[in-house]
Amino acid sequence: MKAPPRPRAPRRWPLLLAAAALPLAATAQTAPPDTATTYKHQLGLTASPVLDGFFKNNRSLPLGLLYKRQTKPNQALRVRVVGQYSRRDTTDFATFDKGSTRYFWRAEAYVGYEWQKALGRRVQLGYGAELGAATSQRVSKFVGDKLTGIGFEQDRGRETDIVRNVLLRPFVSLSYRLGRVHLFAETAVETGYRTFENDRKTYLTIFYYEPDGSIPPQGQLQSSSRYFRNRGPYLTWRPVQLIGASIDLK
């Protein structure tokens, strides 16, 4: 008589594999993907080149700071400040007097809103508007000395131009992304209200020859002045409003 067969032991390897897979599955569910990182802030530098007389008029560019804060995935609040300064001195009469001098400065501030639309993995289209204010001053101090048939003339003068703007700028931008860095360019239509002031003063001192041909220590002073002011609305298109680079910040 044969002995009854022994009961087979249950196979345990499927249970072991399932137990080993549980931690991996939990890790896969809790680990965020790398692309889930979002950046709410953006900080960048801008420059505003001039296309007319590119190599001559871009020796001193308006430079600015641009800050963006994402309010929605495809919308951003933006703040921008711009400054510019240039100066040119001459040494026409360096032996006894300062030469002619010209300097210019400008300050601008803007706040705006931007809508964004992806055109690809790296390319993005932006459009919106900025509201801002700007002020600038250009000063020319000129010096001219010359000998004439009746004496010696000293010409001194100062001319000041002051411009103030309140403006609105609808813009369109195109940006290219490299990791966290954005390279971008903008075009804009600028409209607003501008005030222009011109103030010119000149002083001419003439030293007439004495009968013996000498020049007296004191001369006769002649002065003149002119003031001009203009104000009104304006509209202009800036093909390249600005170019720049920015970086994403958390």
List keywords for this structure.
single chain, 250 residues, mainly beta, Porin, eight-stranded antiparallel barrel, 8 strands, signal, DUF2490 domain-containing protein
Write structural notes for this entry:
With 250 residues, this protein is mainly beta. It has a single domain, classed as outer membrane protein from Thermus thermophilus HB27 (Porin). Helix content is 9%, strand content 64%. It is built from two helices and eight strands; from the N terminus they run αβαβββββββ. It has helices spanning 13-30, 54-57; strands at 41-47, 63-72, 75-89, 101-118, 123-147, 151-178, 181-208, 220-249. Strands 1-2-3-4-5-6-7-8 form an eight-stranded antiparallel beta barrel. β4 and β5 (123-147) form a beta hairpin. The radius of gyration is 35 Å and the shape is elongated. Mean pLDDT is 82; it is low at 20-36.
Sequence of secondary-structure elements: HEHEEEEEEE
Instruction: Give the total of beta strands.
Output: 8
Note the gap between the termini. 82 Å
- What is the subunit organization of this protein? single chain
Overall domain count: 1
CATH architecture: Beta Barrel
Shape: elongated
| Name of the CATH homologous superfamily | outer membrane protein from Thermus thermophilus HB27
Summing up helix and strand content along with how strands pair, one would put the structural category as: mainly beta
Major sheet: 8 strands, antiparallel, barrel
Look at the structure and give the CATH class. Answer: Mainly Beta
Number of discrete helical segments: 2
State Rg: 35 Å
CATH topology label: Porin
Poorly predicted segments: 20-36
Helix content bin: under 10%
Major beta sheet, strand line-up:
1-2-3-4-5-6-7-8
What is the average of the pLDDT values? 82
Q: Give the percentage of residues in beta strands.
A: over 45%
Protein name: DUF2490 domain-containing protein
Keywords: Signal
Signal peptide: 1-30
